Amino acid sequence: MTVTNPMTTAAVTVVTGCNKGMGLEIVKQLLDRKEEIGKVFGLCRRSSPALDTLASNSDGKLVVLDNIDVSNDAVVKQLQDYFGQQPIDVVIHNAGASGLPKKFADDGEFFASQSLANITMENMRFTFELNTLGPLRVTQALLPNLKNAAASNRGHLTKVIIISSSGGSIASVESGGLYSYRTSKAAVNMVGKNIAEDLKPDGIALGLIHPGTVDTGMLKTRTSFHRDVDVSVKGVLKAADLVTLENTGSFVDANYGEGVKPLPW
Predict the structure, then answer these.
(1) Superkingdom of the source (predicted)?
(2) pTM here?
(3) Contact predicate 1/28, CB 8 Å
(4) Torsion angle (degrees, nearest 10) of CA 149, 151, 152, 155
(5) pLDDT digit of tens for each residue in the chain (265 aa)?
């Protein structure tokens, strides 16, 4: 893929789930782009000291919107009331979870909770509401803003980026388990593909990006496959730059910035 109209020229960007982990690092690296980024709106349920510090040192470029729960239908009106008709150039759907928020004694207990014998419908519903329906809700809410940006000739391509996962690749499954996480990510891939087709005529492109195996603290044990969050996010943003109308709807591995790789559905 070649770079065509990357995220440049003072883009207005919305990032969900930005109070910690990957979302926090995405915001940080967007702000480092300086003249390319006009404003970043960080959406989260609760802010964090790290996010508040970023905002206070951003010269007004970072605006934190907390009490935003993308798993709740009320988020649609919240965002519509706040943003009105303001053009938004890029939406990055990062908010997500591997399952119900719970502290596990060890990694084995976490994986056991996601097994066929133990997975609960509450766990499945929670994860779908956040991982699958969250990006759909927020895209619906900000649809007028995205279309306004695409129609106003702002000098760059309007984009929707969904942080997906190779765990959502049905063709790649070689073992059972991880029911709520894998199925919610497979489902958001279909949501994203549909959105890509619907928005292409409006000049809006969409990318489904696997960030890699990232050490965000979800598991207690870091394996040899884990990479640091900053390395993963560099790859994610490079992959986002490569999203065009020609490859809209593609499902790719950001590959830590070492060359984007297509992923099987």
Answers:
(1) Eukaryota
(2) 0.93
(3) no
(4) 80
(5) 233 444 445 799 999 999 999 999 999 999 999 888 899 999 999 999 999 999 999 999 999 999 999 999 999 999 999 999 999 999 999 999 988 888 787 878 888 999 999 999 999 999 999 999 999 999 999 999 999 999 997 888 999 999 999 999 999 999 999 999 999 999 999 999 999 999 999 999 999 999 988 765 555 454 556 678 899 999 999 999 999 999 999 999 999 999 999 999 9
Task: List strands edge to edge, sheet with 90-93.
Answer: 62-65, 37-43, 11-16, 90-93, 158-163, 204-210, 250-253, 261-262
